[in-house]
Design brief:
65% helix; mainly alpha; 0% strand; elongated
Length: 167
C-alpha cells in the first residue's frame, strides 16, 4: 500500500504527495487484489484444462481489453512514467477485472456449458494482472502467484522472473 501510495499520483521531478488517507486507499486496493485472487483460485480448484477452450466474442473482447491495458502499462513503464502505469493497473484491476469481469463470470461458472471458458478467462486475467501489478506490489503478488496451481498457464515458479505479458 505504501509503495503504491508513493508511486501513483506522483510524477517525476515533483514533490511526493502522500497522506494517511492515500495509504488507506491503497490498503483497500491490496485487500481487493487479495479477495479477487482468492475468488478466482477457489473457482479454479476443479479446472483441468487440456487445451485452450473455444472463446466467444465477449471472452475475446475481455482478452483484447487486457491486451490493451498490457500495452499501455508497458509503454508507460518503458517511458519511466511509473505513476501513470500504476494508475492504469489500479484502474484495470479494480474497475474492470474485479467490478465487471468477475461479476460476469460468477454467473457463467455455475453453467456447465460455460464453466471452462469462464475459468480460463479468470485464470488468464488474474495471471497477467499479477504480472502487471508486480512492480508496484511485489510481496502481495508473489504470495498470490505461489498459490496458483496452473503450471500450464504460469510458466515460471517465481513471479519475479516470469515473462512480462506484453513486450
Amino acid at each position: 500500500a505504501i509503495r503504491m501510495a508513493l508511486i501513483v499520483g506522483n510524477s517525476a521531478g515533483s514533490d511526493i504527495v502522500i497522506s494517511e488517507d492515500k495509504i488507506k486507499g491503497y490498503r483497500n486496493f491490496a485487500n481487493k487484489v487479495w479477495n479477487a485472487s482468492r475468488f478466482v483460485l477457489m473457482n479454479l480448484e476443479d479446472f483441468k484444462l487440456k487445451r485452450k477452450p473455444r472463446l466467444g466474442k465477449r471472452d475475446q473482447k475481455i482478452l483484447r481489453g487486457l491486451e490493451k491495458t498490457e500495452e499501455k502499462v508497458t509503454k508507460q513503464l518503458n517511458n519511466f512514467r511509473f505513476s501513470l502505469a500504476g494508475e492504469e493497473v489500479y484502474h484495470y484491476f479494480w474497475h474492470v477485472f474485479a467490478d465487471k469481469i468477475i461479476e460476469q463470470m460468477k454467473k457463467r461458472i455455475k453453467d456447465d456449458k460455460e464453466k471452462e471458458q469462464a475459468q480460463y478467462i479468470l485464470a488468464k486475467v488474474l495471471i497477467d494482472s499479477l504480472k502487471l501489478l508486480h512492480p508496484f506490489m511485489p510481496f502481495l503478488t508473489e504470495t498470490i502467484w505461489q498459490k496458483i496451481p496452473l503450471l500450464w498457464l504460469k510458466e515460471e515458479k517465481i513471479l519475479m522472473v516470469a515473462k512480462w505479458p506484453k513486450n
